[in-house]
Amino acid sequence: MDIQTQIFTQALQIADPIYIDKIDFKDDELHIHLNFYRGSEFECAVCGAKSKAYDTTDKTWRHLNFFQYKCFLHFPTPRTDCKDCGIHQFTPPWARPETGFTLLFEAFVIMMIKGGMPFLELEKITGVYDTRLRRIVDYYVNKAYREKDFSLVCELGIDETSSKKGHNYVTVFTDLKTKEIIYVTPGKSSLAIEQFCFELAEHNGAADSIQAITMDMSKAFIKGASDFLCNAEITFDKFHVVKLLNEAVDKIRKAEVKKNPILKGTKWLWLRNYNNLSERQKAELQFLENENLDSAKAYRLKLTFQDIYNCCDNAEEAELLIQSWLKLADASDLEPIMSFAETIRNHYDGVMKYFKNRITSGICEGLNSVIQGIKRVARGYRNIGNFINMIYLRKCDLNLPRFPLPAKC
Ligand SMILES: [Zn+2]
């Protein structure tokens, strides 16, 4: 065996009865032709018993690039003639049946896409169409997802996020203990929660085991949770509560800017976290706060409300502070703030639960931005299933093939 053949035999971990017959470098391609010794026996795909080749079909697999060369393996693949099972296609150790890719190539694809590389970028590197690359990812994600065990899931974050520009949404379920996304489904109705319960059962989980949920105050989620997750205590997520208050502040600014042009271009001063403002913005805000503005009044109420969330570490004290805040809101004479206060009263128990259990929806603390990042990289998903699989790939702890594979190529 010449040195070149020896190196490739070792690198590809080719073992008897298969051997490298010929190695061809052609333009930017490397073709490795494999063969087997005549009279060799192969495992029957059904029972595993060894039997002789009945006939062969020439097959080709795309392998990892070898430096700048695209590498292909060729092998006259036998069909075995098993005395018990009849004639069956043999699958060589470097591939899954009928894929045209080696396992190592597939593991490489998974690694790159999981790492955040866009499919079109990987298409350029490998020369393999993105639709074929997607099929690899879909196969492994679906397989690994089916194997997931949800028997220990008991605390849940439920949130919606947009899947496309406009009004397409998916509902995302997060295990608050492990911080992983465990289910994503199109839509944001109560049906999403029903579907989650079906999926939970498929993975050894039980709707009755869910003890705590954090979510927004949407009617659909409240209905879904009370219909299908009957044992769960609902906490309204603090980020969503503050978001509603921010919307109220913005409504007031929008109405006021029509009468008072001093407010033009100040939207983010009132909404952004104070510590994230530049010195110039802080000075501008301070100036505006001294003006007699409804927006400034609403802003101060918002800060007071946020302070309760940020500083209050005991439930009784929080209760007193929220109660006095609600009175201030009522007295403010600002309709959007009064309406927000009404929403808080209507969802009082769920809002106050936060001060007892301190759970927030994991997705608000970063998962949502990861999901939006996935969306941006793909410039919008035409196929919602692909989008959901990408979320699982990045944010569900899946048992995926690792690169490099420990065993044979
Ligand atoms: Zn057999």
Could you characterize what this model shows?
- With 409 residues, this protein is α/β, with parallel strands linked by helices.
- The chain folds into 3 domains: 3-100, no CATH class; 155-237 and 361-377, Ribonuclease H-like superfamily/Ribonuclease H (Nucleotidyltransferase, domain 5, 2-Layer Sandwich), CATH 3.30.420.10; 238-357, no CATH class.
- The chain is 45% helix and 21% strand.
- Strands 1, 2, 3, 4, 5 and 6 form a 6-stranded mixed sheet that branches. A 5-stranded mixed sheet has the order 9-8-7-10-11, with helices on both faces.
- Helix 4 (130-146) crosses helix 15 (384-395) and helix 7 packs antiparallel against helix 12 (335-346).
- The longest helix has 20 residues, at 238-257.
- The protein is elongated.
- The chain starts with a helix and ends in a 14-residue tail after the last helix.
- The mean pLDDT is 92.
- Residues 44, 46-47, 49, 82, 84-85 line the site of zinc ion (ZN).
